[in-house]
Amino acid sequence: MKKRLIYIVASLMAAGVMVSCHKITVEATTELTPDIYPQDSASFITASGPAYVALRGNVAAEYFFQQTYSTDEGIMPARGGNWYDGGQNLEMHYHTWTRDNGYVNGNWYWLSTIIGTVNQELSILGKTQPAGDSKDRNLAELKMVRALAYYFMMDNWGNVPIDTLYGDFVARDKTPRPEVFNFIETEIKAAIPYLSTTVSKATYGRFTQYGAYALLAKMYLNAEYYTGTKKYTECIVACDNIISSNKYSVASRSNYLQAFYPLNGPDAVGSKEEFIFAIPYDPTFTNTLPFRAANYHARYDVPRSMGKVAAGAGYNYFNIPYTPGGPASTLPEFYAYFNDVNDIRNKQWLVGKQFLPDGITPLNITTTKAGYDAIAYKGDSSKFTYQLELTPNIVLRQSTTTFDCGNDEVAWNMGYRNIKFYPDATSASRDQNNDIAIFRYSDILLMKSEAILRGGTPTLGQTALSLANDVRSKRTTSPAWATINLDSIYNERSREFAWEAWHRNDMIRYGKYEGKWGFKTNADEYRRIFPIPTNAFAVNPKLTQNPGYN
Q1: What is the pLDDT of residues 39-53, one digit of tens each?
Q2: d(CA 44, CA 236)
Q3: What is the CB neighbour count within 10 angstroms for residue 13?
Q4: Looking at the predicted structure, is the pLDDT value of residue 396 above 60?
Q5: Do 95 and 139 contact (CB within 8 A), yes or no?
Q6: How far apart are CA 499 and CA 348, in angstroms?
Q7: For the RagB/SusD domain, which residue ranges apply (predicted)?
């Protein structure tokens, strides 16, 4: 079993603590009060756990879906009726989502819950924990968790209400996005002096100063879009605070893929060098919040014929104890960025004909002719064996209305699959051990490179070109770049952070979110932010809908 933050989470679950939710979503009470809990040093550590538990909620599922399937990076079409899910995946792809979309509602609720949980913990710990460095650090960490939640809300919904008081259920209208930006920036700067500068197993999965600077850098890189004011030099300064610490490095070419393996973490190659702030996952975690709090990537990303299969039907390539759904894939437009044959990042994809682990023997699938292609061989039940081949294009053969490719092998094998979060054969369930990195060191270098290209002041003798080549030298054996421009950085970010839920953020900053890909042609700029969900209005009647939405 893994390793970090478990002492907080396990203690929290044993205590059976209930947490309150942010008022913009739901008003709730709690049994946790300053009169009864916490009372000693161990309890103070336990009491800071709910914020991190809440943060784990939707990161690897619903939040990932919203960030990824609304871009050219990913698509989840239906397959024979499965995965239609009320049209929420269709809406993400076509940019036709409404205030009732499941991801829009679920992620607003999730982020609101994080904020409400932190407000509660700050109120209690602020009154009960004895003054000193430990208290200051606990409170600063909690404020950073809240700052990250507010950042995600600002990035996705623009103007959002700000509330920092536990138990205050006064309805508030939305705060303009530039003011939300200033609030988050102020919170981060105030927290930094009290955060740890230690990078170790003890601080893994918790906010340190470097995680705070990474969030600041991300905000400053996007500040021109969020506020109308350029802050590229400020982005560079935030990056430099991490670079100059000399506590992180870009994982080597041989370790890059391992950084995302099931046993990644503070002691694992790749992740220990690169992960600045990560969210731990473990199938043994117990969840008491109304979110999955699980990493189900293999369930969605692995072709169903490469997991547990019926006897004689195929080969359990990943040795996982279940049949994956395998509905998610990338689109040809995104896969086109992986055009360097010497780049290790190509190996995060399953493409084309598949072979057994020896790399020679074809991975054959046995079915019927109709099971292979229900259109060409309708009703033909004769035996049919073929080599598994993943094809690049998504074709809605069964129904364009219901976003459906069909329910045969041809349909299920459409789309190249990403296995960056490598399937976890040690787990007895569909949940995985793979931790999810929110901020990585390669992102710091590429953000600084981009900020310089956008007009920020170079520092530390580094140039936009040298920074990008620092990353590329650890990813490909191809020659270093001789020149660089913003498009090259965008392409490099697409390769480096594929399947890490940052591509929507990048597309918007680069003005590419209104483009055409797959079946999507909608170019409405107002869809750079999502609608305020229906359920939020039921709780807070002072909210107003975002422009363009009903």
Answers
A1: 555 566 677 789 999
A2: 36
A3: 16
A4: yes
A5: no
A6: 10
A7: 389-549
Give per-residue pLDDT as tens, 105-128.
999 999 999 999 999 999 999 988
Q: Where do the domains of the chain lie, and which CATH numbers do they carry?
A: 6-294+433-539 (1.25.40.390), 297-418 (no CATH)
Cα dihedral 210→211→215→217 (10° resolution): 20
Question: Could you give the residue ranges of the DSSP H alpha helices within 158-231?
Answer: 177-191, 209-221, 223-227
Token pair of 514, please? 């209104």
Tokens found for residue 31: 């049994």
Picking from 209, 142, 222, the residue whose alpha carbon sits closest to that of residue 181 is 222
Nearest CA to 304 out of 83, 93, 130, 498 is that of 83
Distances (CA, A) of 242 to 121, 140, 230, 496, 502: 28, 18, 21, 19, 20
- Please give the C-alpha separations between residue 8 and each of 13, 45, 126, in angstroms, as whole numbers: 9, 7, 19
The answer to whether the Cα torsion of 526, 543, 55, 275 is positive or negative is positive
- In the three-class reduction of DSSP (H, G, I as helix; E, B as strand; rest coil), residue 450 is classed as helix
Cα distances from 25 to residues 49, 115, 289, 290, 418, in angstroms, run: 21, 10, 14, 13, 34
Which residues, in sequence order, are CB contacts of 255 under 8 Å at separation 6+? 269, 270, 273
Q: How far is CA 234 from the centre of its chain?
A: 25
At residue 26, the pLDDT reads 33
